[in-house]
């Protein structure tokens, strides 16, 4: 076999479909976010405004977070020294887990290097803990959840997205004595829609199932202390396992699950994704703990964030552009063609100094390709005006349809 030819075929297919992804060299400047520096292919540098970052609240630049990281790195150095079982557990890791358990009002929390790993490792391990476990998974769950469910070797059922009636049918069709777990998300990141948390919890009670919620796009941003949509809706006590990230609203890195002490202990003891992975650097854990603690008591950034998202959605709707609006902070602008989506992204960057990454298949279904905007409290009126003007011009330039609102 000619391996180079096979690689060429695979890569050319992506180019032909307009789905080939290019890394953009973006360097954030401390204290200046969302402004950054773009290093172009020829080495030239120019200023850009980032409109697609997941540092939703700008906490990656917050003085409280940076001070905690400086203190930890000066005290301990760079790395953790190993896995948690060998030498990679420090006071910083324990402090962060304590903050997270308190955040979600659970007995315990368990740290992973990312929320992807947390989902994958936990969902693939649970059938080892509950013999004969059946996992009921929302059809639009994140790839990390899908992978964890796929790899666990147990039974699985896929229910139509947010379709509680279909979920009920699947639950009712299985052995009432079989252990069950329902896995879903609080906010689905591509459309920004909310999961029916209460209704799913009601079904879990009725059929004796555990509940597993991914709050990755909600922690830090919803609820009185930032614990997510389940906290906002007063439902945290009805969720058995909560997955979250430290890399979005908290502005650092890492993922976790929060649950009972016994549940976390079992996952810690059985999950290869935890056992064999070097732990987060202490400075990262320290910064994340500081961020979580700060956002528990400071609601101002959450309020500003929702205000900015509402303003941007209103202004895009005013131009007749097809955005999806489910009431969350995520703002997808549907283009519907991978080539046009890439072209819009390229022109925004090259002609207007605005960075918005195109989102294409397989992340979203074909025909729903989009630009996804994530405004933050640090995107001011000047940045907002410039974005609206640029989008208006480019939409007309590309002769794309208006007044066909998807939301």
List unreliable stretches of 5+ residues.
none
Range of helix content: 40-55%
Name the strands of the widest sheet in spatial order. Answer: 4-12-11-10-7-5-6
Q: Count of helices?
A: 14
Global structural class = alpha/beta
What fraction strand? Answer: 15-25%
List SSEs in N-to-C order: HEEEHHEHEHEHEEEHEHEEHHHHEHEEEH
Structural shape: globular
Spatial separation of the terminal alpha carbons: 49 Å
The Rg value, from CA coordinates, equals 22 Å
Q: How would you characterize the largest beta sheet?
A: 7 strands, mixed
Average of per-residue pLDDT values: 95
- Total DSSP E strands: 16
What does this protein structure show overall?
With 407 residues, this protein is of the alpha/beta class. The chain contains 14 helices and 16 strands. Helix 2 runs antiparallel to helix 11 (282-297). The chain is globular and about 60 Å long.
Question: How is the topology of this model organized?
Answer:
Layout: H1 3-16, E1 25-28, E2 35-39, E3 45-50, H2 63-76, H3 91-103, E4 108-112, H4 115-129, E5 134-138, H5 143-151, E6 155-159, H6 164-173, E7 180-185, E8 187-188, E9 193-194, H7 197-207, E10 209-214, H8 229-232, E11 241-245, E12 255-259, H9 261-270, H10 272-275, H11 282-297, H12 300-318, E13 331-334, H13 338-352, E14 354-355, E15 358-359, E16 370-373, H14 381-397
Parallel strand pairs: 3-14, 5-6, 5-7, 7-10, 10-11
Antiparallel strand pairs: 1-2, 2-3, 4-12, 8-9, 11-12, 13-16, 15-16
Helix pairs in contact: 2-11, 3-11, 4-5, 6-7, 13-14
In short:
The protein is of the alpha/beta class and 407 residues long.
